[in-house]
Amino acid sequence: MKKRRFASVWDAIEAVPSEAASMKARAELMTAIRQTAEKWGLTQAAAAKKLGLTQPRMNDLLRGRINKFSLDALIDLASRAGLAVRLQVRRAA
């Protein structure tokens, strides 16, 4: 069996490169939002209110349930969390 190497886990999991790119961006945004919310030192309910979410939705975010969030929704949440989102586009390797 031939071994294959991938740039990220998403490249290995997703069948289509565009889906892998979307998942990478979503994962990066979720991580940044989670880290920011944890620094607030608030309860899930208070952090959810600050982000305009319900507590169960906040729990989905904190637990990394990536399929429950679109890229647009995560960009909105990042903005509400006080984060600046910048998109970098470059030619694929």
Summarize this entry quickly.
By secondary structure, the chain is mainly alpha-helical. The protein has 5 helices and no strands.
Structure description:
This protein has 93 residues and is an all-alpha fold. The protein has a domain at 16-80: lambda repressor-like DNA-binding domains (434 Repressor (Amino-terminal Domain), Orthogonal Bundle). The protein has five helices and no strands. The chain has helices at residues 9-13, 17-40, 44-51, 55-62, 71-80. The longest helix is centred in the first third of the chain and has 24 residues, at 17-40. The two termini are 25 Å apart. The relative contact order is 0.15. The mean pLDDT is 89.
What is the element layout, followed by pairings?
Blueprint: H1 9-13, H2 17-40, H3 44-51, H4 55-62, H5 71-80
Which keywords apply here?
single chain; 93 residues; mainly alpha; 434 Repressor (Amino-terminal Domain); 5 helices; 59% helix
Helix content class = 55-70%
Q: Please state roughly what percent of the residues sit in beta strands, choosing from under 5%, 5-15%, 15-25%, 25-35%, 35-45% or over 45%.
A: under 5%
List the quaternary state of the chains: single chain
Number of strands: 0
Query: What name does CATH use for the topology of the domain at 16-80?
Result: 434 Repressor (Amino-terminal Domain)
> What's the mean pLDDT score?
89
Task: Look at the helices and sheets and give the structural class.
Answer: mainly alpha
The CATH class of the domain at 16-80 turns out to be: Mainly Alpha
- Evaluate the radius of gyration: 15 Å
Topology pattern, helix = H, strand = E: HHHHH
CATH superfamily of the domain at 16-80: lambda repressor-like DNA-binding domains
- Ranges where pLDDT stays below 50 over 5 or more residues in a row are none
What is the count of DSSP helices, taking H or I runs of 4+ residues?
A: 5
